[in-house]
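Box S2. Input/output pair 1.
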Amino acid sequence: MQGCHTSSMGGMVGGIDFDQIDALLQNQLVTEQGIELVHAILEGEPLEPKPRIQPGGVRGDYVCPSTGISIRLNHFTLQSALLQELDDPSSKCLVYRGWPTEFGGLRYSVKNGSRTQVDIFRPFVFHVGELWSGFADIFPTSKLKRSVERGSALYVEVDHGHWTSPAITERLSPTGLRYRVLTEKHFGHWYLHNIGILSRYHQPDYKVMDPTACETVVAMVKDRGFMFRRDLIDLQLVCADDLNYLIVTRRVYFPLHSQDVTDMRSSAIFRDQIAHESFKAARAATDGFLSLDTTGKDASGDAKPSGEPDFMQLVSREAWEFAERKLQTLSERVSSWWPGSGPKRVGKLIPPATKALWQSQAERGELLYDSAIFGLIPRWDGRGFRAKRYPESEQLWDEVYLECRLTKRMTLRATHGEFVVRAETRGLPVFSYTTAKARDRECDLSVFVEARDGRAARYAIAGFAKPGTANRLYQTTVPVYFAHIDHTPLPIKIENSVNRRLIKGQIWLSAMIDEATGAKLAWTISFGAPSARSVMTVLFECIRRHGCLPTFIVVDNAPEFDSLVMHSILRLGRANLLWRPPYQPRYGAPVEAANNKITVQSLQMLAGNTVAVKSLYQYSRTFIARNPELMTLTELTAFFTGVFDEVEQEVGSARTGDEPVKDYVARRKAEVGVGYRTPINLNLSVRRICSPPASGGGMRTISDEGYVEVDNLAYFSEDLKRFRRQRVAVHPDLIHPGFVYVYVSAAVGWIDAKSTYADIFEDYSRRELLGVIAELKRGKLRGVNNPVVKARVLAKTVVERERDPARRDELAQKFEQFSNRASALLMTAPDTRNQCNVPPDVEADAMDGDMSGSTAGECLESAGIGRPDRGDGAAAPLGATVPAGDKAGSDAEAGTVDAGGKGSSADQSDRSGEDDDEISVTPSRLSF
């Protein structure tokens, strides 16, 4: 598969012998020149996409499930679908490469033959398979048609929906390799959405919940021919995860191209493809379901099944009598509607067209079931089916609707009249005006919006979305599967929770919005402009809450969304990053709407709101909006927690069908399962990857007492005493102000250090603590240069100024316990998990002014430091709080204060084997 590491030793490529590949290529009539080209591709490095971004496409990265290697995509929807198909074992693909090479001297005519264009050709994927080998490109049909309309002869439509390129085929003719042009017609509507849900079940680490239930379901499906997923889930015959596993492993058949695997109302699993074809034929017929008993004989529409048809078990007595009366009227020349046929029909003559329809139904029943009455039984049990029965007419309606209704703004009656004229000209069936009104209500009148220049984004109407062009991924109904991340400034002023001083600067909210429910999967507050650190805190918060990341994450084109550390976290969660097309915020409508609701509605009545008095802050530093008693960060996070996690979970939305969000999530969890989520353990080693360097380039000198100084505070570790007076790189923890990570050398690796009063600092942001230190420098700490003393004074001040009596007593007890020990006794306890407390549920990621301009990825490059090694040190889940009694007990037993965590030497030895097999991910663009 793609990303399998190549090696010239032994002639192996991804576990496949070069000799085997050469023999396969020779059987496919590939020339010697072509075989040499294949060797160069498999041993070389991939190129960049060309063009970088296709117009209207969503770019992103595809990570191969088997190897973790990333492939850059410039049209995510189509290209990732093709790669998912190649990763399927049934595709008989041995190996493939993304953006393998390029060919110059490609000649084709343009301007309708008026001149010849010489270009460079760079295909999307190179494929070596058992059936064919060569290059493949996949484009939207609209792009290929646009190319033809402009007079280019590069791509030619040879058949309806099938395209080729004579110029590229001629250019590759000396090699004997094939070239294929694919469009969205190669896939069904639901393939990408389905495979995104099911890809996780391909992984070898998935464990079946109930093997007995799986075998029972497989036997039932083979016996009956098909079963609806809704029946299996509702009757609790099998869990959703195991059912998805049966589909992936092909124990049962599911049409990934034509049915939505998450739709419990209509999706079904089948015995085999023949059973599925019989099911489709039955659905297309107006007289009910055909029998799916195809075992041991060929499927034939003329075959007469034995016994009664399957739908007979749903026939009521009234329906049987209704069919008997219809059969009786067929022998009469003139008939009237009988009592019980409806109040509007009784006594009126039956139209000849209706009797002709009944006659055909009776003949069909005689042919299929040896009973005319079987064909006349009404399907009252199947009423409410709204499938579009005439695809060509529906396609014509979409074209007429876009041209007349949306573009020319014609009335619906006139639009339907134009549709009737065109349909009759082409000989297509025509649906009624009532159906046209239903189609008009179904049309999504979402508008394209284009961002204007300026800091305040203003939007203008640019047109309507073409019906039928919506991306299926954006229409998902699966929670924690497809999400958006964005930042918004909060029009509010808050004060420091310790010294009650106004915190200057703009407050930002970074939120991750679930596409299926509109709920906030994660959110954090920061005091600086959006950066890579803001994105990391949102990802960490999502992992803490849900134990995983969404499969697809949509972001805009801001640089903070494309850092190396972000790609590392996404790789751990096997999440795909999607970029919204520029100047089209409608692709991020859920998060844009949520941000507007937060800033306009949620904060409108809070103390410190600056919407109405925003300009006054520019003229008066002492001005305080509305209420002199501003909110603190703790109070603001508590307010958001109540709104997002309690109020919004109890109400419904348009996405959930007015069903409460928490009930909707619980129901979809039972219907779809949770196996599509990749669990992540958010330990200290993961948080260490994203830690930015300290101020001043991040370099510090280890003191004789075994601590390093960051932000005028001391951070201890017993392991640091071995490296006294040595220059090391220090990276403060992104979330917890009481932790720092020290990188000593490549041989030693990382050492975790913590402040003596980390348990006291955990409930405060770094920005708040720095504000208190700046105040103390002008008072108690004037002329004091000892960071240990500064940490003690800071902790004492925090305890004295705490307004909550219960919280103040708890902090005072901790402070008294730590203060009675000499600094020389600070050592590292053997169990870091019982000592290193993690931050509260939602914590701000504010940093000091010297670090505001740095990005999260600079921690990998400062002072020649390589990529951080992964550690095995575990911590409590982000947001967990250790009870005071447990903390005190553990401290008393240890007799020392934990200041660092596990020894780095042990960690390095434990990681030696793991780092060798670690998969690297190359992002599409670095932001630093």
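Box S3. Input/output pair 2.
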Amino acid sequence: MVIPIDPRLNTYFNEYAVIDLGSNTFHLLVAREVNHSLQVIYELKKSVRLADGLSAENRLSEQSITRALACLTLFSERIKQLPKKNVRIVATHALRIAQNSDHFLQAASEILPYPIEIISGQEEARLIYLGVAAHSLLKKETKLVIDIGGGSTEMAVGVGLNVLLVDSQPMGCVSYTEQFFSSLEINQTNFKNAKHTAIQRLEKISPHIKSLSFHYTIGTSSTIKAFHNLLIEMGITDGIITYKRLELLYHYFLSCKTVSKIKSKAISDSRKSVIFGGLAILMALFETLEIPHLHYCPHALRNGVLYEMIKQLSMDDIRQHTALTLSTQYHIDRIHAQRVMDMSKHFYQQWQRQAKTKFNHSLESLLYWAALLHEIGLNINHASIHKHSAYILRNSNLPGFNQEQQQLLVTLVRNHRKSLKPENIPNFTLFDHQHVMILIKILRLAILINKQRQQDLPPNAFQISFSKHDPQRVELAIDADVAQKNQLILLDLRQEQLYWQQYQNGQLNLKIATDMLAINK
């Protein structure tokens, strides 16, 4: 008997995939939603050792890029049928610091038709914590979560799903093994140097972490899993990692002297080759943070990303909370910011109607948050507010924002006034350059029009239109009555015309309209 299948039922829409491009290992996780819960149906990981291919100038070697692309080709076989909204790809430390990451991202885009997000260390720590906390039975207890990756170590403290502190340090099992154990040999001197270097890195953050009085410590990902498995192989089966037990591993490695003499079936050969660096970092963490014991958890970054994709707590909700928190912290004039946001929305919607094309869904939200936060640097100095605001946003931990989203937010705020300079507009992989330039111009106009902080300026008194042949050529129509009553706006707009002309022959045309109703049609 053959059961007929309705062709309208596409199971792919119920599947979600996350790819974690780690510095040492790439992970693919596929799950499906069943009765409002997640059911993992496929997992695959491959040792790529991307961080191993970083030069002294932080450039990825062609060999490491080739290994990474081969892995993505393999992953693509499983997920290439999934719609874009069901896939999220995040990249961590190695691609964060790689000077030629754009070369890799361009090649990867030809294999996978999905955007790759490079996330900050703090955002990585937050998502790792969420992946652990979402599957933990310790709901009300304060937890410290640790993840030692290939190029960085992430730490987060929280209660339930609420994160209290996140931190990322540029020390990982691959980078530390290369720095201190390049010959894959271990002795007391090189191990002591590695551990003390890690302790020095942790000295600044450790008082803040300890002040939160965490009750439990949870370790995740492959490095800590390796120590967990080694201890089980040695007969310690309760799953608890302590400092004394790590010392047992240290003395065992010391007796082996080299990686080639480690006789263990509990960990792979690729993991053995970076184990010394990982152990030095973990022992430094135990000493500095005064950790009594640690439990291993199999859930990690990819689980946090997946959880956030499915649950009602959307990325926009998290970013909105981040933006509002910053606006409160820096005493932003919310009434003025709302007027700028309303004008930005008015112009954005006009652009959207005229362009008749698909936009990156993050563009609109990032424009509004830039409008909300453009005065965040006002307390420092008004004269260079665009620079001070950009500096604060560039150096702040922004939960929910990936690296390029944060960079675009910084770019919009940095260029909201004064001269437009090419060197201030970075290259993006997730966002179209032309779209970025239009957002900058929309924000500049919205801020300039509301510069006098008038309370009676109706957005409908301003109409923006873009040339079909060159969207960077903009016409701004202004209601004649409004223009007559606001000569300062006209004066500022004429200066704005000069700024636009200085940037790649940009053009802003002004039109005083006696019949705005006809224009709005």
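Caption for Box S3: Residues 375 and 382 are 9 Å apart (CA to CA). The domain at 122-309 is CATH 3.30.420.150 (Nucleotidyltransferase; domain 5).
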